[in-house]
Design a protein that fits this description.
Blueprint lengths: L1 E3 L30 E5 L16 H15 L3 E5 L16 H11 L11 H8 L5 E4 L7 H5 L2 H8 L4 E4 L22 E3 L1 H15 L5 E5 L8 H7 L5 E4 L3 H8 L14 H13 L3 E4 L2 E6 H6 L7 E4 L7 E6 L1 H12 L3 E5 L12 H12 L3 E5 L1 H9 L8 E2 L3 H8 L5 H4 L5
Helix pairs in contact: 1-2, 7-14, 8-9, 11-12, 12-13
Length: about 425
C-alpha cells in the first residue's frame, strides 16, 4: 500500500460551511387545490421494447408525488429524457415513463407537449389529487438555454413550483432555474431535501473519522471534490484509473495504464496538501494488470496478473485494485464513522476487473457509519452486491452530487425560495 502520510488520526474538525440558506420544503406549502409544477428526474434507461429498463429514479420521486396528491394538489410533472437537441424526437418521449408511473400510482396521462394551448387546458382541467405528465422539456431548445420566454410559458402551468430533481440541480435550465422567476414560491421536494441533508451534513459536520472513496478514470473529474474535502476528510482512498496519475506523479512506472500527463503536477500538489493537512491519502499498493495489446485484441480471454504497482511491465495496463489494496482500503473503511463513495475501483463493467469495486461495496455496507454512495458504477455495485438497503443514502445525482461535494453552488437549489 502506498500511503501518503499517516493512518487516520483524531484531529480537530476542519469544517467550512457552505453558505446556503435553508430553503422552503413542499411540506411548508399549502398545495390543496393548487397547480403544483413539480420538476422530477425521469431520465431513465429505455429497453429495446420501448419500456422503462430501470425505474429507480421514478420510484425515488414517489414520496414527494404521493405527498402532493394526498394533500389535494393538482400535479403537473415535468422532466427531460436523453438529449433530443431541442426538437421533438419520438425516441426521447416520456411516454414509457408515464406508463411506468401509471402502473405505480394510477393513471397519469401524458400531455402532447410541455407548453401550448392543449397542455394548458389539460393542466387547468386537473382535479385535486390527480396528476399530469408533460412531454420532454428538452423538445424545446429554450429548456437548456434557460430561455425566459419558455420558462414563463412553463410557469403558466403553475401556482407553486417544487424541484425534486436533484440529478439536474447543477444545471441552470428553464425547468430547474428559469421558472422560479415567474412563480411566487419555489420549494424543494422530499428527495431533494434528503439529498441536501445527507450531502450537506457530510460536508459541514461529518462524524469522524470521515473517509472519502474516489474512483473512476480521470483525476480532472474529481479535482474540485478532492480540494474541498481535504478540508474535512480524515482519509481519502483513490482507486480506478485516476490512481495511476497519482502513482506516476510519485515516480512509479505505470506501463500503459491510463494516465493524465497534464495533471501530474496537480496530483503532486494534492498529495503535498494532504500531507500538510494531516489527511491520510491512500493509493493502491497492488493491482490487477493485463498485457495491453492482448487486451485490445481480445478482452474476453485476456487473463489478469496480480502484482505490486511497482512491478507493472512496460506493456501492461492496470485495470483494478489488487487484493492487498482491497484489504487495506477495507480496514480504513471499517474504522470510519462517515463515508462518501463516488466512482469505481476498476473497469467495473468487465469482470473480473469488477472485484475491487464489489469488495469495496461490501466493506462500505458492513461499516458502522453514515454511508453515502453516488455515481452510476458505485450505485450499480451496491445494487448488484445486494447491499443497497444497507447504505444510509444512495444519491440520485452523479454530476450534481460531485458539484455539491466540490462546494459549488447548484443553480436549481439556489433558485428555491429561502425559508
Amino acid at each position: 500500500m502506498i500511503e501518503v502520510l499517516s493512518r487516520i488520526t483524531n484531529h480537530e474538525s476542519r469544517i467550512t460551511h457552505q453558505s446556503s440558506m435553508p430553503k422552503l420544503s413542499i411540506t411548508d406549502l399549502d398545495v390543496s387545490g393548487k397547480r403544483v409544477f413539480m420538476r422530477v428526474d425521469f431520465n431513465v434507461p429505455i429497453n429495446e421494447d420501448g419500456e422503462v429498463g430501470d425505474d429507480t429514479r421514478i420510484r425515488a420521486a414517489l414520496p414527494t408525488i404521493r405527498y402532493a396528491l394526498e394533500h389535494g394538489a393538482r400535479l403537473v410533472l415535468a422532466s427531460h429524457q436523453g438529449r433530443p437537441k431541442g426538437k421533438p424526437d419520438p425516441k426521447y418521449s416520456l411516454a414509457p415513463a408515464a406508463r411506468r408511473l401509471s402502473e405505480l400510482l394510477g393513471q397519469v396521462p401524458l400531455a402532447p407537449d410541455s407548453i401550448g394551448e392543449k397542455t394548458r387546458a389539460m393542466a387547468d382541467a386537473l382535479e385535486p389529487g390527480h396528476a399530469l405528465m408533460l412531454e420532454n422539456v428538452r423538445f424545446h431548445a429554450g429548456e437548456e438555454r434557460n430561455d425566459p420566454e419558455y420558462a414563463r410559458e412553463l410557469a403558466e402551468l403553475a401556482d407553486v413550483y417544487v424541484n425534486d430533481a436533484f440529478g439536474t440541480a447543477h444545471r441552470a435550465h428553464a425547468s430547474t432555474e428559469g421558472i422560479t422567476h415567474f412563480v411566487e414560491k419555489s420549494a424543494a421536494g422530499l428527495l431533494m431535501e434528503k439529498e441536501l441533508r445527507y450531502l450537506g451534513t457530510a460536508l459541514e459536520k461529518p462524524e469522524h473519522p470521515f473517509v472519502v472513496i474516489l474512483g473512476g478514470a480521470k483525476v480532472s473529474d474529481k479535482i474540485a471534490v478532492i480540494e474541498n474535502l481535504l478540508k474535512s476528510a480524515d482519509a481519502i482512498l483513490i482507486g480506478g484509473a485516476m490512481a495511476y496519475t497519482f502513482l506516476k506523479s510519485q515516480g512509479v512506472e505505470i506501463g500503459r495504464s491510463l494516465v493524465e500527463d497534464d495533471r501530474l503536477e496537480l496530483a503532486r500538489d494534492l498529495l503535498v496538501r494532504a500531507k500538510e493537512r494531516n489527511v491520510s491519502f491512500l493509493l493502491p499498493g497492488d493491482n490487477a494488470v493485463v498485457n495491453k495489446s492482448a487486451w485490445d485484441a481480445d478482452r474476453k480471454t485476456t487473463e489478469p496478473r496480480i502484482c505490486s504497482v511497482n512491478e507493472i511491465k512496460s506493456d501492461e495496463a492496470g485495470l483494478d485494485i489488487g487484493p492487498d489494496a482491497i484489504q487495506e482500503f477495507s480496514r480504513t473503511i471499517a474504522a470510519a464513522k462517515t463515508i462518501v463513495w463516488n466512482g469505481p475501483m476498476g473497469m467495473f463493467e468487465h469482470p473480473p476487473f469488477d472485484r475491487g469495486t464489489r469488495e469495496i461495496a461490501l466493506a462500505v455496507a458492513d461499516a458502522q457509519a453514515t454511508t453515502i454512495v453516488g455515481g452510476g458504477d458505485s450505485v450499480a455495485a451496491i445494487t448488484e452486491a445486494g447491499v443497497s438497503d444497507r447504505i444510509t443514502h444512495v444519491s440520485t445525482g452523479g454530476g450534481a452530487s460531485l458539484e455539491f461535494l466540490a462546494g459549488k453552488t447548484l443553480p436549481g437549489v439556489a433558485a428555491l425560495t429561502d425559508k
